[in-house]
Amino acid sequence: MSDWSKVTRPIPVPNEWTRPFWDAAKRGVLALQRCQQCGHFQHPPYATCVNCVAPDLAFEPVRGEGAIYAYTIMYHTGDKRFASAVPYASIIVELDDAPGALMAGNLLEAPYTEAKVGRRVEVMFQSLNDDITLPQFRLAGARG
Known about the structure:
The protein is mainly β. It is built from one helix and eight strands, in the order αββββββββ.
């Protein structure tokens, strides 16, 4: 498995649109932006709905379960902070509760070779510091 113990990730900087996402993640909740006009979920957060352009958006909790929509195996890294984790699986997940809203993350707690399109995954939360907790993914049912 990839060794993430020595990786020092870049720390996201929340802004007015993303702060509710990061605040929820810190509480161990995956919350995505949803349009209150058309019901469309979207991620990453924007000022308006990407479907109908309405400005009435709210963050709603989702279970964090879904399927790998796409993936790539990272054998090389342009950022030396990730060198100890190579090779690793970078995945895109379509969440069951939010069709069309795709989330990027890494497949953790499993060999990178386990990343396959359609494979079931669930969210897990990785604390980066006192302020930022990063939603990541593991194979469904692999609670450790």
